[in-house]
């Protein structure tokens, strides 16, 4: 980062380009476009793909609000569908039942660090000529059949501090299409092709060079971060396997889970959560409400699995700085509650 400051190139320039190149390589895409946040990445790709008023976008009801906000930003309509009870990702059967003549795009989410069912979602998208925008904000490095490129129109990433790697704030769009990448660069940079030559309205969504330098450093460490998360998850799986009131995370066949969150389904979840808080264990609930039920959406949706998950999921610490001794303490705290 000192080199960035000394260079005077604080926005755009070689440090941004270097990060984009490294990120694209890590995620197995030819093109990466760095932006100011994961939410900005969704907003930009919606514009670049021409999604707008009258279009329907199908999103999972069980995810962070930013996934659904993007459609509203461009005047499109969200259709909320249910998720798989074991993997927490979009249910392909629910997806197919929700498609109408107005459907333009599908936004499956690789939730908690695990890829959605890429084969089934892609098959449905091709049959109905729909765009797939993968929300991988929590899942950098997650793979489907050993490939981080999920074969979508575009994939978005977030580098918020709680993610598996960070640029402080930031996000990115990944795509196989050079034309789409160029459109995204225009939308992130006030629509400007060259000084005072504007192709579209555009936004100021640039990611500063200092943040990109941080991202380049984080990318070098990311494989170790990921292995630490996976190791911690394996230990927790083993320690909690004897607790019948807990269902530990399941790694989907063909998927490589990067465990942004280690999320269990727990009986008497809220009481367990309070018990862990008293022991100063940083458990949390992601997410306590179906998106469609939030007042800001006030939408109609039949998503019984999502409703149940919102009452039972609990995420336990699994990040790389958690020690094995602390993992033992977490497991013992859970066991002591049920005893």
In summary, what is this structure?
This protein is α/β, with parallel strands linked by helices. The chain has helices spanning 2-7, 14-27, 38-48, 66-73, 92-98, 118-128, 178-188, 209-240, 269-278, 304-312, 324-338, and strands at residues 31-35, 56-60, 77-81, 103-106, 131-135, 143-144, 154-158, 171-175, 192-194, 197-198, 246-247, 255-256, 262-266, 313-316. It is 40% helix and 16% strand.
Task: Explain how this protein is built.
The protein is of the alpha/beta class and 339 residues long. The chain folds into two domains: 2-216, Type I PLP-dependent aspartate aminotransferase-like (Major domain) (Aspartate Aminotransferase, domain 2, 3-Layer(aba) Sandwich), CATH 3.40.640.10; 223-338, Aspartate Aminotransferase, domain 1 (Alpha-Beta Complex), CATH 3.90.1150.10. Helix content is 40%, strand content 16%. The protein has helices at 2-7, 14-27, 38-48, 66-73, 92-98, 118-128, 178-188, 209-240, 269-278, 304-312, 324-338, and strands at residues 31-35, 56-60, 77-81, 103-106, 131-135, 143-144, 154-158, 171-175, 192-194, 197-198, 246-247, 255-256, 262-266, 313-316. The strands form four sheets. A seven-stranded mixed beta sheet has the order 1-8-7-5-4-2-3, with helices on both faces. Strand 4 (103-106), helix 6 (118-128) and strand 5 form a beta-alpha-beta unit. Helix 3 (38-48) packs parallel to helix 4 and helix 3 (38-48) packs across helix 7. It is globular, with a radius of gyration of 20 Å. The chain starts with a helix and ends with a helix. The model has no long low-confidence stretch (mean pLDDT 96).
């Amino acid at each position: 980062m000192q080199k960035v400051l000394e260079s005077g190139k604080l926005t755009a320039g070689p440090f941004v380009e270097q990060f984009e190149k490294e990120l694209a390589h890590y995620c197995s895409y030819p093109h990466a476009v760095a932006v100011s946040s994961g939410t900005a990445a969704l907003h930009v790709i919606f514009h670049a793909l021409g999604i707008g008023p009258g279009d329907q976008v199908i999103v999972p009801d069980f995810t962070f609000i930013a996934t659904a906000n993007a459609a509203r930003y461009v005047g499109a309509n969200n259709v909320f569908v249910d998720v798989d009870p074991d993997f927490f990702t979009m249910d392909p059967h629910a997806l197919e039942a929700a498609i109408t003549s107005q459907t333009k795009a599908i936004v499956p989410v690789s939730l908690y660090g695990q890829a959605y069912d890429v084969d089934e979602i892609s098959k449905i998208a091709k049959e109905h000529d729909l765009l797939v925008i993968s929300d991988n904000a929590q899942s950098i490095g997650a793979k489907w059949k050993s490939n981080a490129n999920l074969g979508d129109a575009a994939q978005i990433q977030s580098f918020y501090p709680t993610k598996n790697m960070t640029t402080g704030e930031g996000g990115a769009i990944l795509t196989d299409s050079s034309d789409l990448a160029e459109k995204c660069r225009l939308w992130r940079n006030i629509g400007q092709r060259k000084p005072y030559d504007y192709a579209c309205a555009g936004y100021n969504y640039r990611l500063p060079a200092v943040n990109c330098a941080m991202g380049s450093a984080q990318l070098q460490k990311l494989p170790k971060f990921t292995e630490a998360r996976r190791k911690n998850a394996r230990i927790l799986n083993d320690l909690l396997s004897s607790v019948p009131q807990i269902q530990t995370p399941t790694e989907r066949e063909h998927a490589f889970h990067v465990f942004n969150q280690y999320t269990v389904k727990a009986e008497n979840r809220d009481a367990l959560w309070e018990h862990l808080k008293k022991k100063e264990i940083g458990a949390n609930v992601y997410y306590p409400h179906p998106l469609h039920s939030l007042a800001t959406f006030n939408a109609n949706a039949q998503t019984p699995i999502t409703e149940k998950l919102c009452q039972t999921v609990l995420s336990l610490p699994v990040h790389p700085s958690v020690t094995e001794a602390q993992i033992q303490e977490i497991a013992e705290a859970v066991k002591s509650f049920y005893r």
